[in-house]
Amino acid sequence: MRKVSAVLLGLAVSLSVMVGSASAATSLDSEVSKLIGIDYDYGGTTKSGFDCSGFTSYVFNRFDIELPHSSKAQAQLGSKVSKDELRAGDLVFFETGGDGISHVGIYVGDGEFAHASSKKGVTISKMNDSYYVSKFVTARRILSNNAYKQLAVE
Protein backbone atom coordinates (compact mmCIF):
# COMPACT_ATOMS: atom_id res chain seq x y z
CA MET A 1 0.00 0.00 0.00
CA ARG A 2 2.82 2.41 0.83
CA LYS A 3 4.38 1.79 -2.57
CA VAL A 4 1.10 2.65 -4.34
CA SER A 5 0.72 5.81 -2.22
CA ALA A 6 4.28 6.87 -3.02
CA VAL A 7 3.68 6.31 -6.74
CA LEU A 8 0.45 8.33 -6.66
CA LEU A 9 2.12 11.12 -4.69
CA GLY A 10 4.98 11.18 -7.21
CA LEU A 11 2.53 11.32 -10.09
CA ALA A 12 0.61 14.19 -8.48
CA VAL A 13 3.83 16.14 -7.91
CA SER A 14 4.96 15.45 -11.48
CA LEU A 15 1.67 16.69 -12.93
CA SER A 16 1.81 19.83 -10.78
CA VAL A 17 5.32 20.61 -11.96
CA MET A 18 4.30 19.92 -15.56
CA VAL A 19 1.69 22.67 -15.49
CA GLY A 20 4.21 25.22 -14.34
CA SER A 21 3.78 25.37 -10.58
CA ALA A 22 4.83 23.22 -7.67
CA SER A 23 1.31 23.02 -6.31
CA ALA A 24 -0.93 23.63 -9.34
CA ALA A 25 -1.98 26.70 -7.36
CA THR A 26 -3.87 28.54 -10.08
CA SER A 27 -7.36 27.69 -11.30
CA LEU A 28 -5.99 27.19 -14.81
CA ASP A 29 -3.23 24.84 -13.61
CA SER A 30 -5.73 22.86 -11.58
CA GLU A 31 -8.16 22.48 -14.46
CA VAL A 32 -5.44 21.43 -16.91
CA SER A 33 -3.85 18.95 -14.48
CA LYS A 34 -7.21 17.14 -14.08
CA LEU A 35 -7.23 16.41 -17.81
CA ILE A 36 -3.66 15.19 -18.36
CA GLY A 37 -3.68 11.70 -19.86
CA ILE A 38 -7.18 11.78 -21.35
CA ASP A 39 -7.15 10.11 -24.76
CA TYR A 40 -7.21 11.95 -28.07
CA ASP A 41 -10.49 11.67 -29.95
CA TYR A 42 -10.98 13.48 -33.25
CA GLY A 43 -13.96 15.81 -32.74
CA GLY A 44 -13.93 15.05 -29.01
CA THR A 45 -15.11 17.71 -26.57
CA THR A 46 -15.53 15.77 -23.31
CA LYS A 47 -13.45 13.95 -20.72
CA SER A 48 -14.13 10.79 -22.75
CA GLY A 49 -11.67 12.19 -25.31
CA PHE A 50 -10.55 15.49 -26.79
CA ASP A 51 -9.18 16.85 -30.01
CA CYS A 52 -7.03 19.97 -29.70
CA SER A 53 -9.76 22.60 -30.04
CA GLY A 54 -12.20 20.48 -28.06
CA PHE A 55 -9.66 20.51 -25.22
CA THR A 56 -9.14 24.27 -25.29
CA SER A 57 -12.89 24.87 -25.57
CA TYR A 58 -13.56 22.55 -22.63
CA VAL A 59 -10.97 24.21 -20.36
CA PHE A 60 -12.13 27.75 -21.07
CA ASN A 61 -15.80 26.76 -20.83
CA ARG A 62 -15.06 25.71 -17.22
CA PHE A 63 -14.41 29.44 -16.63
CA ASP A 64 -17.50 30.59 -18.59
CA ILE A 65 -15.46 31.57 -21.64
CA GLU A 66 -16.88 30.11 -24.83
CA LEU A 67 -14.57 29.19 -27.69
CA PRO A 68 -15.55 27.74 -31.06
CA HIS A 69 -14.62 24.11 -31.72
CA SER A 70 -12.08 24.91 -34.43
CA SER A 71 -8.41 25.89 -34.11
CA LYS A 72 -8.73 28.19 -37.13
CA ALA A 73 -11.74 29.97 -35.61
CA GLN A 74 -10.03 30.25 -32.21
CA ALA A 75 -7.04 31.89 -33.92
CA GLN A 76 -9.31 34.81 -34.88
CA LEU A 77 -10.23 35.64 -31.27
CA GLY A 78 -8.61 38.05 -28.83
CA SER A 79 -5.43 39.90 -29.64
CA LYS A 80 -2.23 38.73 -31.25
CA VAL A 81 0.67 38.11 -28.85
CA SER A 82 4.32 37.64 -29.76
CA LYS A 83 6.03 34.44 -28.67
CA ASP A 84 8.26 36.32 -26.22
CA GLU A 85 5.23 37.94 -24.51
CA LEU A 86 3.29 34.74 -23.81
CA ARG A 87 1.60 34.37 -20.44
CA ALA A 88 -0.40 31.50 -18.95
CA GLY A 89 -3.81 31.21 -20.59
CA ASP A 90 -2.75 32.43 -24.03
CA LEU A 91 -3.69 30.19 -26.94
CA VAL A 92 -0.82 28.98 -29.13
CA PHE A 93 -1.38 27.84 -32.70
CA PHE A 94 0.55 25.55 -35.02
CA GLU A 95 0.45 24.38 -38.61
CA THR A 96 0.84 20.63 -38.35
CA GLY A 97 -1.00 19.50 -41.46
CA GLY A 98 0.25 21.83 -44.18
CA ASP A 99 -3.06 23.63 -44.59
CA GLY A 100 -2.81 26.64 -42.29
CA ILE A 101 -3.55 26.54 -38.58
CA SER A 102 -4.41 22.99 -37.59
CA HIS A 103 -3.47 22.68 -33.91
CA VAL A 104 -4.04 24.71 -30.74
CA GLY A 105 -2.90 24.51 -27.14
CA ILE A 106 -2.95 26.59 -23.96
CA TYR A 107 0.29 28.20 -22.86
CA VAL A 108 0.88 27.26 -19.21
CA GLY A 109 4.15 29.10 -18.55
CA ASP A 110 7.82 28.18 -18.43
CA GLY A 111 7.93 27.63 -22.19
CA GLU A 112 5.27 24.89 -22.09
CA PHE A 113 1.76 24.40 -23.42
CA ALA A 114 -1.06 21.95 -22.70
CA HIS A 115 -2.82 20.36 -25.64
CA ALA A 116 -4.54 17.25 -26.94
CA SER A 117 -1.93 15.42 -28.99
CA SER A 118 -3.13 12.84 -31.48
CA LYS A 119 -0.37 10.47 -30.26
CA LYS A 120 -0.26 11.20 -26.51
CA GLY A 121 -3.70 12.53 -25.63
CA VAL A 122 -3.83 15.52 -23.28
CA THR A 123 -0.25 16.35 -22.43
CA ILE A 124 2.23 19.13 -21.79
CA SER A 125 4.85 19.92 -24.44
CA LYS A 126 7.66 22.41 -24.70
CA MET A 127 7.27 25.28 -27.15
CA ASN A 128 10.88 24.72 -28.25
CA ASP A 129 10.38 20.99 -28.87
CA SER A 130 11.91 20.22 -32.26
CA TYR A 131 8.51 19.21 -33.66
CA TYR A 132 6.60 22.30 -32.51
CA VAL A 133 9.21 25.06 -32.82
CA SER A 134 9.10 25.05 -36.61
CA LYS A 135 5.31 24.69 -36.76
CA PHE A 136 4.39 27.65 -34.53
CA VAL A 137 2.17 30.17 -36.35
CA THR A 138 0.73 32.64 -33.83
CA ALA A 139 -0.57 33.17 -30.32
CA ARG A 140 -3.72 34.92 -29.18
CA ARG A 141 -4.60 36.45 -25.83
CA ILE A 142 -8.24 35.86 -25.01
CA LEU A 143 -8.14 36.47 -21.25
CA SER A 144 -8.65 40.02 -20.06
CA ASN A 145 -6.14 41.25 -17.48
CA ASN A 146 -8.72 40.68 -14.73
CA ALA A 147 -9.52 37.14 -15.93
CA TYR A 148 -5.79 36.41 -16.20
CA LYS A 149 -5.25 37.51 -12.59
CA GLN A 150 -8.16 35.38 -11.40
CA LEU A 151 -7.32 32.22 -13.35
CA ALA A 152 -3.62 32.13 -14.05
CA VAL A 153 -1.80 33.99 -11.28
CA GLU A 154 -0.96 32.24 -8.02
Automatic annotation (TrEMBL):
InterPro entries: NLP_P60_dom (IPR000064), Papain-like_cys_pep_sf (IPR038765), Peptidase_C40 (IPR051202). Residues 1-24 form the signal peptide. It holds the Pfam family NLPC_P60. Residues 22-143 form the NlpC/P60 domain. The keyword Acyltransferase does not apply. Keywords: Hydrolase, Protease, Signal, Thiol protease. It comes from the Bacteria. Belongs to the peptidase C40 family. This is C40 family peptidase.
